[in-house]
Specification:
This protein has a single domain, classed as Pseudouridine synthase (2-Layer Sandwich). Strands 1, 4, 5, 6, 9, 10, 11, 12 and 13 form a nine-stranded mixed sheet that branches. A two-stranded parallel sheet has the order 2-3. It has a two-stranded antiparallel sheet with strand order 7-8. With about 200 residues, it is an alpha+beta fold. The longest helix has 9 residues. The chain is globular. Strand 7 and strand 8 form a beta hairpin. It contains four helices and 13 strands.
Length: about 200
């Protein structure tokens, strides 16, 4: 079983082929040379960070389906500075269109996290401050984080997934996967211990 951790850069399509044949967008094929591996879940074109890929279809389903509630942690830069009532709404769950999000873990980051610069950088507005949140979800609906912060009035400017926590439903034990020194565009295969842990989920 192959398992790969990839640091997806901004503006990279989260698949190996672009359905728009006339597009100049980069895809996973521009970075990952291993055959027959596919992403677990997805990161939007304008999102960055940790992406797990595997050649095992059963594991892919086990980790991606929202029913299994594996936690994913994001660092989120938003416009302006949310107050505690706004953060409480995220923690309780937000109604977005026809569904209500599951309660999320949300922390205000007092300092900007250490991240590689984004290319291109976010648009700087002199009179509009920004702030950073750490948000952990147990589901991954389409553009969920961006819709959640927009719903409370603080649009997302930058979104970086930094961790994925795998929970074994039988033993109730957790194991966290992190970027671990990878730079944007770099990948590495998981070590034996991590692969054995994932194998036990099947």
């Amino acid at each position: 079983m192959k398992c790969v951790l990839f640091y997806k850069p901004y503006n990279v399509l989260c698949q190996f082929t672009d359905p728009d044949q006339n597009s100049a967008r980069k895809t996973l094929k521009n970075y990952i040379s291993l055959p027959n591996v596919y992403p677990v879940g997805r990161l939007d074109l304008d999102s960055e960070g940790l992406l797990l890929l595997t050649d095992n279809g059963q594991l892919q389903h086990r980790l991606a389906h929202r029913r299994f509630a594996h936690a994913r942690t994001y660092w989120v830069q938003v416009e302006r500075i949310p107050d505690q009532p706004a953060l409480a709404k995220l923690r309780q769950g937000i109604k977005i269109k026809d569904y209500v999000t599951r309660p999320a873990k949300v922390n205000f980051l007092a300092t900007e996290p250490l991240l590689f610069p984004r290319t291109p950088p976010i648009r700087f507005r002199k009179n509009v401050p920004t702030s950073w949140l750490e948000i952990t979800l147990t589901e991954g609906r389409n553009r969920q984080v961006r819709r959640m912060t927009a719903a409370i009035g603080f649009p997302t400017l930058r979104l970086v997934r930094v961790a994925m926590e795998i929970t074994n439903s039988r033993t109730k034990k957790n194991r966290q996967l992190r970027l671990g020194g990878l730079e944007p565009g770099q990948w590495r295969e998981l070590g034996q211990q991590d692969r054995q842990w994932l194998q036990k989920l099947l």
